[in-house]
Amino acid sequence: MTVPFSPEELLARVLAITRRTYGDSVPITPVIKVGELEINILDRQVTAGTSRLHLTGVEQSLLYLLAANAGQLLTRNEIMDALWGVDYVAESNVVDRHIRNLRAKLQNDWRKPRFIATEPGRGYRFVATFSEPDERT
Length: 137
Hints:
The protein is an alpha+beta fold.
């Protein structure tokens, strides 16, 4: 496997080895569920609440990376290294552009983050949100 690799390729290889070793009797459903967000890597589906989102491959990988590290600060360099590899040379705002596009699809306002919080000058953090039931009685 060459570096950098996508999480999807790694997962596909692990599933193939598991299937060869144990047969089809081991069901694996790699789903990350954080707050209102659910990311299904195998089916390449992302849902936020009741809405199904249509993301590009880079946006889905970025969201997966952030959600898998929920609560942890990821710098722009860490994100670039994880998604494009350490040898990738890009303009300075490539991560910011993808974050902006992802936020637009998630309907996430940077001033009141629901999923992706910005730490100015440091990086981004995935914040889990939970719908609070309306307690007016």
